[in-house]
Write a structure and sequence with these properties.
Distance between the termini: 33 Å
Strand content: 35-45%
CATH class of the largest domain: Alpha Beta
Number of domains: 2
Radius of gyration: 17 Å
Order of helices and strands: EEEEEEEHEEEHH
Length: about 170
């Protein structure tokens, strides 16, 4: 939904990404959205005191990071929890028996209009082939060490870690 004062500046028909602008005296404010099917989801999948992370190359920043499984909503996803279940299975090959919405984050509230649902998953079982085979199961102390070393440093994963820990 475009709020009053925003004008469409650019749209990609291939990706669904839109850029809107709001012209103000002396500057132009921009906002980007790219989730036409609803909010994305990031998954805190925990089993036996360990949380699954994915090792993934991020060409946009030229780095390999550890991130929580995540992704955008697809048209067939009924809600953010369904998105989380699907993304967990696609990215890690794991099925979640129990899932619960923890809350919502905005990765960059100054530029991005899209939200991301944070979902906890338990009762995990093998369910398919992982899109990202570099899975790392980390304890709370190992998560802290990976954050401190910069192995975990993307905004979505950091925000999800903080929200899950705050709501325990």
């Amino acid at each position: 939904m475009i709020r009053p004062g925003w004008q469409l500046a650019w749209r990609s028909d291939d990706t669904g990404i839109e850029v809107h602008e709001q012209r103000m005296p002396g500057y132009v404010r921009a906002r980007v959205s790219g989730q036409p099917n609803g909010p994305g989801a990031v998954v805190w999948a925990e089993e036996d005191g360990r949380v699954v992370f994915i090792g993934i190359d991020r060409p946009a920043i030229g780095a390999r990071l550890l991130e929580l499984p995540r992704g955008g909503a697809e048209a067939e996803d009924a809600d953010a929890v369904a998105t989380a279940r699907r993304e967990l299975l696609e990215e890690t090959g794991l099925r979640a028996g129990e899932v619960a919405l923890v809350g919502t984050i905005w990765p960059d509230s100054g530029l991005l209009a899209d939200s991301v649902a944070v979902v906890r998953a338990h009762d995990l079982a093998a369910g398919g082939v992982a899109e990202f085979p570099d899975l790392r199961w980390l304890t709370a102390d190992e998560i802290d060490s990976a954050v401190a070393s910069g192995e975990i440093r993307d905004g979505i994963t950091l925000s999800a870690i903080a929200l899950v820990r705050a709501r325990r």
